[in-house]
């Protein structure tokens, strides 16, 4: 299984962004590096929150601001990184790709989806479409522990989040 590796600090920043945008969807860009072909996946080194410019139904969809995507591309180049994926939230819905996610996803990128409710983020899962028009494949989300963080033991295939003390 491919994997998306990010720090607890990055995941907490995504969690804060999702909670602050609730009940609308939040979105952002994941910058990093591809992992060795033998292990597969990506290592996230920076997250860049973006604006949701969806004109309607922002509780059910996002449209990452074009200016924010262009800025992410410039920042990645200047830091020797690449865009490895994107994140967005699903307010009051499971962290699973919806119909619009499947229709609009670009091949080769990780899509980290966080489920957020009135009490905050409850789940985070990542998916990737290996080939154009192909199905989404789930990839594991790995958090190397560094610094004070409290993560609940997740059920198989999920990342459970808890507030830091």
Supply the key terms:
single chain, 165 residues, Cytidine Deaminase, domain 2, 20% helix, globular
Structure characterization notes:
- The chain has helices at residues 8-21, 66-78, 99-104; strands spanning 3-5, 27-34, 41-50, 82-91, 110-117, 120-128, 137-142.
- By secondary structure, it is of the alpha/beta class.
- The protein has a single domain (3-142), classed as Cytidine Deaminase, domain 2, CATH 3.40.140.
- The chain has a 7-stranded mixed β-barrel with strand order 1-3-2-4-5-6-7.
- Strand 5 and strand 6 (120-128) form a beta hairpin.
- The longest helix is centred in the N-terminal third of the chain and has 14 residues, at 8-21.
- It is globular.
Biggest beta sheet attributes: 7 strands, mixed, barrel
In the CATH classification, which architecture applies? 3-Layer(aba) Sandwich
Name the helix and strand elements from N-terminus to C-terminus, one letter apiece.
EHEEHEHEEE
Radius of gyration: 15 Å
Pick out the low-confidence regions. Answer: 147-165
